[in-house]
C-alpha cells in the first residue's frame, strides 16, 4: 500500500503499510528536487504495554509472558528473561542446560533467517511480491527455504514442544530436557540444512546489490570463545566495551511522535546497528571454518558496510547455526537435573542476548516475594529504528533519477535489510515513570 | 537467476479466479498466529493453490482490495482506529474467522483491563500524548459478528489447516471443545496435578495443544482459553487444597485469555473472596 505524490519539484514517497515485515510500520520520505527533506520510519503497531502489566506478575511467569511479545523470535525473549532473572537469584545453570539453550537459539536463528532471507527479502531482489508467487518460477528455491525453516522449527519443537512460544524454558533450566536419542534424530536433517545453507549463500551472493556503504557503528555481544548468542560483553567497532548491566548508562531512549516504539541511541554517538551484520563484522573470527569459507566465496568479508549484503550475511549465519547445532548435539549429555532452583530474593538483573535481529536487552527488578516491580525491554528493532532512517537519508539521494514507484520499492527493500520486527519494537523501551 | 523488472501491481482488482480469496488481518498481537500459516511448511504451497492469498501484509506485497471470501483476523482491538478498522474488515469478508487468543479473548494485553491505562502509558512512554490507546483490549467478537473462533496462544497450525480445509469443503471444522485433560489421557501422560501437585489449568482449558505443557512435566497455563462449560470454581478449590494463595489463583486465570468471561469471572470471584 503505497502512495507517492509530486507537486512542483517536491515529491513525497509514502508507504502506508510496509509489507513482508513483522508488524505494522510505514515509511515517509520527502524530497525537494534531489534533496531529502525528511525521513520517517513510522511504527503504528498498537502498543501492548508489556512492561506495565509485567509489574506484579511472578518472576517464574516471565519467560512465558515475554515470549508473547514476538511470534517470530519468542526464544530470544525467553533467553534474555531467564538470564536476567538468574542473575538476580545468583543461579548458575548446568553446562548441559547452557548447551541446550544455545541449541534452542540455533533453531530460532535457522527458522527466522530462512523465513527472512528467502520468503521476505529475496522477493525484493528477484522482483516478486512474495515467496508463494516467486515459487511459480523458483519453485526449488522456495521448497528449499521451506524445508530449511522446518528444520529450525523442528529443533524448537523437540526442545520446547512447539515452534511459536515454546513451553519448556524456565528460570534455572528447562521443565524437561531431551534425551540424547531425541537430539541425534535431528542430525541428518541438520547436515542437509548446513549443506543447503552453503548452496543458498552462494545463490543469494549472486543477487544484485545497490552500491551503498555507510560508516556504521556496529553493536553486538562478544564472547571470548564463541559466536555470540546468550552471553558476552556489549561491544562496538567504535570503542564500546561494557557489561550488559551498563546498558542504561550508554544507551538512551527517545520518544518521537511518528513512532509507537521508542528510538534508542548511543549517548555520545547517535544511531547504531544491531543484527547479523554487526555480529558478523565484530565476531568473524569466532565463526566455524565452514562459515568463514562460505563468506569469503560470497564476497562478504568484515567489515561489510553494505546493508543490502545483509541477506548474504544472514545466509552465512544460517550455515553457522546448522554447524553449531550439529556440534552441540554431538557433545550433549543430559544434565543431572533439568533445572536448578534458588531461594527468592529481591534484586535487579540485566541480560542481553542475540535475537536473530540483534541485541535484545532485558532488565528486571523483583521484590522478596518474587514479584516483578519493574521491567525494561529493549528489542533490536527499536535500536535499529534510527539507523533505518539514517540509511534512507543517505540512500534516497542515489535514487532521485528513478520514477517514484521505483524509489518507493527501493526504500522498502532498504528497510527490509534490517528484518524489522515491528511487533517487538513497539512500546518496550522504558523511560522514567512520570506520575 | 533472472530478475523481473517490477513487482506486480499492488492494488488492482482480483484476477479472474474461482479459488476462494483469503485475506489475513493483524490487530494488536505478536504475529505468531499468522506465522502459523507460513510455519505449515509442508502444506503452504498446497494451500496457496487451493485458495488465493490476496491480502497478507506479513508475507506478501500483493494487497488486493476486498471483498474477500475468507478473512483471518489476528489480534485484539486496542485503539480507536482499530475499532473502526474491524468494522470495515467485517464488511469486506464473507466469512470472518478470528485466530488466536488475542482475537478471541483480548490476549495477554487484556491485563490492562484491570488497570489504569493512562498510568500504563506513562510508565512506558515519555510523551503519552503521542499514544492513542483504548482503556481495554477486547476480542473481535465484542465488536462484530464472528463466524468461527480458533483458539490458542498461538493457534495450532493443524487446526488452522483443518479449518481452511473445512471451509473449502463447506463442512463444519472438527475442532474439539473438550479440555486438555482428554489430550493428556490420550497421550498416556501421568497427571501432573495428581502426581506432583502442579497447579494445572488443564481441567478448564480447551484442548488443541496436544497437552503440551503436561508433556513437558509442567502444569497447563491455559493458553487455549476456557473449554466449553469449565468448572472453574472446582479448580479454584483444588488449587487452594494444593496450598495456592488467592493471588496465585487470580494470576492463573488472568493470563493469556484473561478477558474470556469464564476466566474473568473465576479470577474476580477469587479476588472477592
List keywords for this structure.
heterodimer; A: 435 residues; alpha+beta; Cytochrome-c3 Hydrogenase, chain B; four-stranded antiparallel beta sheet; three-stranded antiparallel beta sheet; 15 helices; 17% strand; globular; disordered C terminus; B: 273 residues; alpha/beta; Rossmann fold; five-stranded parallel beta sheet; 12 helices; 5 strands; 36% helix
Could you explain the architecture of this structure?
The complex is a heterodimer of chains A (435) and B (273). With 435 residues, chain A is α+β, with helices and mostly antiparallel strands. Chain A has one domain: Cytochrome-c3 Hydrogenase, chain B (Orthogonal Bundle), CATH 1.10.645. Chain A has helices at 50-53, 62-67, 74-89, 95-126, 131-134, 139-160, 180-184, 187-205, 247-250, 276-283, 289-297, 310-331, 380-395, 404-416, 422-425, and strands spanning 2-7, 10-15, 25-32, 35-43, 169-170, 173-174, 219-222, 233-236, 241-242, 251-254, 263-266, 347-355, 358-366, 372-378. In chain A, the strands form 5 sheets. Chain A has a 4-stranded antiparallel beta sheet. In chain A, strands 7-8-9 form a 3-stranded antiparallel beta sheet, covered by helices on one side. In chain A, strands 12-13-14 form a 3-stranded antiparallel beta sheet. In chain A, β5 (169-170) and β6 (173-174) form a beta hairpin. The longest helix of chain A has 32 residues, at 95-126. Chain A is globular and about 70 Å long. In chain A, 60% of the residues are buried. Chain B is built from 12 helices and 5 strands. In chain B, α11 runs antiparallel to α12 (261-272). Chain B is globular and about 60 Å long. The relative contact order of chain B is 0.12. The interface between A and B is large, with 88 and 74 residues.
Amino acid at each position: 500500500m503505497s502512495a507517492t505524490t509530486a507537486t512542483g519539484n517536491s515529491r513525497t514517497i509514502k508507504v502506508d503499510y510496509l509489507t513482508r515485515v513483522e508488524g505494522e510500520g510505514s515509511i515517509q520520505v520527502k524530497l525537494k528536487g534531489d534533496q531529502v527533506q525528511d525521513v520517517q520510519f513510522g511504527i503504528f503497531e498498537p502498543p501492548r504495554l508489556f512492561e506495565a502489566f509485567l509489574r506484579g506478575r511472578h518472576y517464574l511467569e516471565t519467560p512465558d509472558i515475554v515470549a508473547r511479545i514476538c511470534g517470530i523470535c519468542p526464544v530470544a525473549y525467553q533467553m534474555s528473561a531467564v538470564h536476567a532473572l538468574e542473575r538476580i537469584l545468583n543461579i548458575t545453570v548446568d553446562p548441559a542446560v547452557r548447551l541446550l539453550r544455545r541449541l534452542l537459539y540455533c533453531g530460532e536463528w535457522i527458522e527466522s533467517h530462512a523465513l527472512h532471507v528467502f520468503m521476505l527479502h529475496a522477493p525484493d531482489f528477484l522482483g516478486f511480491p512474495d515467496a508463494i508467487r516467486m515459487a511459480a518460477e523458483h519453485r526449488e528455491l522456495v521448497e528449499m527455504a521451506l524445508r530449511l525453516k522446518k528444520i529450525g522449527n523442528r529443533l524448537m519443537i523437540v526442545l520446547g514442544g512447539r515452534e511459536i512460544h515454546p513451553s519448556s524454558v524456565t528460570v534455572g533450566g528447562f521443565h524437561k530436557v531431551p534425551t540424547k536419542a531425541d537430539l541425534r534424530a535431528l542430525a541428518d536433517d541438520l547436515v542437509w540444512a548446513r549443506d543447503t545453507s552453503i548452496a543458498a549463500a552462494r545463490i543469494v551472493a549472486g543477487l544484485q546489490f545497490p552500491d551503498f556503504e555507510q560508516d556504521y557503528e556496529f553493536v553486538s555481544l562478544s564472547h571470548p570463545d564463541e559466536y555470540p548468542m546468550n552471553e558476552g560483553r556489549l561491544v562496538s567497532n567504535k570503542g564500546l566495551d561494557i557489561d550488559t548491566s551498563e546498558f542504561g548508562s550508554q544507551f538512551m531512549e527517545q520518544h518521537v511522535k511518528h513512532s509507537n516504539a521508542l528510538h534508542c541511541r548511543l549517548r555520545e554517538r547517535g544511531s547504531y546497528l544491531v543484527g547479523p551484520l554487526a555480529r558478523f563484522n565484530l565476531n568473524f573470527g569466532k565463526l566455524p571454518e565452514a562459515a568463514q569459507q562460505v563468506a569469503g566465496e560470497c564476497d562478504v568479508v568484515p567489515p561489510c558496510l553494505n546493508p543490502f549484503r545483509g541477506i548474504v550475511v544472514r545466509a552465512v549465519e544460517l550455515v553457522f547455526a546448522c554447524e553449531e547445532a550439529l556440534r552441540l548435539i554431538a557433545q550433549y549429555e543430559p544434565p543431572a537435573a533439568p533445572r536448578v532452583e534458588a531461594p527468592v530474593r529481591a534484586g535487579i538483573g540485566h541480560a542481553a542476548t542475540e535475537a536473530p535481529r540483534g541485541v535484545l536487552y532485558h532488565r528486571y527488578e523483583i521484590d522478596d516475594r518474587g514479584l516483578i516491580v519493574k521491567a525494561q525491554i529493549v528489542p533490536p528493532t527499536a535500536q535499529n529504528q534510527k539507523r533505518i532512517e539514517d540509511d534512507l537519508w543517505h540512500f534516497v539521494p542515489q535514487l532521485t533519477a528513478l520514477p517514484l514507484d521505483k524509489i518507493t520499492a527501493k526504500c522498502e527493500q532498504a528497510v527490509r535489510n534490517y528484518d524489522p520486527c515491528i511487533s517487538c519494537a513497539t512500546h518496550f523501551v522504558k523511560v522514567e515513570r512520570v506520575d | 537467476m533472472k530478475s523481473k523488472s517490477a513487482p506486480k501491481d499492488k492494488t488492482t482488482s482480483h484476477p479472474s479466479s474461482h479459488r476462494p480469496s483469503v485475506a489475513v488481518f493483524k490487530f494488536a498481537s505478536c504475529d505468531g498466529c499468522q506465522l502459523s500459516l507460513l510455519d505449515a511448511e509442508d502444506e503452504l504451497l498446497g494451500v496457496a493453490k487451493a485458495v488465493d492469498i490476496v491480502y497478507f501484509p506479513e508475507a506478501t506485497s500483493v494487497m488486493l482490495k476486498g471483498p474477500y471470501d475468507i478473512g483471518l483476523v489476528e489480534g485484539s482491538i486496542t485503539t480507536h482506529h482499530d475499532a473502526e478498522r474491524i468494522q470495515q474488515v467485517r464488511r469486506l469478508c464473507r466469512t470472518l474467522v478470528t485466530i488466536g487468543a488475542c482475537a478471541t479473548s483480548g490476549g495477554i494485553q487484556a491485563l490492562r483491563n484491570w488497570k489504569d491505562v493512562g498510568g500504563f502509558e506513562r510508565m512506558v512512554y515519555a510523551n503519552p500524548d503521542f499514544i492513542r490507546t483504548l482503556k481495554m483490549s477486547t476480542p473481535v467478537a465484542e465488536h462484530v459478528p464472528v463466524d468461527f473462533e480458533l483458539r490458542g496462544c498461538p493457534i495450532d497450525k493443524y487446526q488452522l489447516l483443518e479449518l481452511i480445509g473445512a471451509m473449502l469443503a463447506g463442512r463444519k471444522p472438527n475442532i474439539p471443545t473438550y479440555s486438555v485433560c482428554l489430550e493428556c489421557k490420550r497421550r498416556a501422560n501421568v497427571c501432573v496435578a495428581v502426581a506432583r501437585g502442579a497447579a494445572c489449568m488443564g481441567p478448564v482449558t480447551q484442548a488443541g495443544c496436544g497437552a503440551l505443557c503436561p508433556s513437558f512435566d509442567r502444569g497447563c497455563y491455559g493458553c487455549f482459553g476456557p473449554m466449553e462449560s469449565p468448572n472453574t470454581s472446582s479448580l479454584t478449590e483444588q488449587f487452594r487444597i494444593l496450598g495456592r494463595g488467592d493471588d496465585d489463583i487470580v494470576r492463573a486465570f488472568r493470563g493469556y485469555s484473561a478477558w474470556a468471561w469464564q476466566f474473568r469471572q473465576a479470577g474476580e470471584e477469587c479476588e472477592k473472596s
